Structures are given as C-alpha cells and as structure tokens.
Predict the structure.
Amino acid sequence: MVFVVIDGLDGSGKSTQARLIRSRAAEKGGTCVLRAHPSSDNLFGRLGRGCLLQEGKKAHAAASLFYLLDVARSLLLYRWRRVDYVVFVRYLMGTAYLPEPLHRVAYLFLYRLVPLSSHMYFIDVSPDEAHRRIEARRGRREMFESLERLRQVRGKALSLIGKGSWTVIDGDRHWRVIHRHLSELIGL
C-alpha cells in the first residue's frame, strides 16, 4: 500500500490532484481510498466545515478541534485498509492554521505521532494565485481564504516544511503539469 499525503493552502489544487491520482490508480487497475479533510461523511468533518464559514476565535478553535478529530477518524478507519493507495488531503499542514507558536508545537507533536510517508507533498501555491483561484470558483469564502490570511498560513507552513520529509511542488503551474509531476513521483 502506498500512503500519499497532499497538503497545501486553500486554492492550491490539493483536492483536484488527489482526485486525479485516484483516477490514475483506477486506470492502472489499482484500488484507492481518498480522504479529504474536512470530510463530509462524518459529524466531525461537517462541524469543522461549518466552523470554517464563521469568524472569530471560538470558530477558529472549534474548526481546529473538529479538523483534528476528523483526521484522527480517517487514520483509524482508512489508513490500514487493504488497498493499493491511500490518499490524504490536508494532513499535518492543517497545523499551520493554528496561532503562533501553537502551530509549531502541534506540528512537531503530531509529526511524531501520526504515520508518515515517503510520499508527502506540499503544493506551494503563491497566496495571490490561491486567492485568484478561490475567488474564481467559490461563492462563500472560509475564514482563512482572505489574501492576508493566505500569506500568513503559507509563511507558517513553509516554516514547518523543513521539519519533515516533504516534497515541495510548485503549485502556480498548470494542474496538468502538477499532475504529471506527482504521478511520476508516486510511480503511477
């Protein structure tokens, strides 16, 4: 089983790439479980998504808690399934959304706790490009999708990248170019 982690800012193309990987695996006769967080198939994910549409410290804290529970649930239920590929969207870098310096402490704690992979990819999109994509595709924005917040979260995420075995992918490129690169790295 190949465990693939795809992380990055909102608007980086994480979910698009994960769906393409799932399709590519199926084309090659492989089985794939795709887990995107926050998930829509459980209470933690739905509550977390609802909190992301609100503002304020309470909503931020609640979104973080529900995100953590959602990822933990996915690990318990799906990480050990007998399939060829397990793809997680938004995994450890969700900690970059926490306030400083909590984001660093949470990342280091979870990095030692959760299963890791040689296929951990951070799609590094510029905040300007991420914001442009978000504006083009969504009606209602989540609490972290302003240009200022995208810049803050990217800075925190990049500071965490060095504390792990991440491969950074240029997320400003066209999605087809990114997909070809990821497919080569994963061996699909």
In short: Residues 2-186 form a domain with the Rossmann fold fold (CATH 3.40.50.300). The longest helix spans residues 57-78.
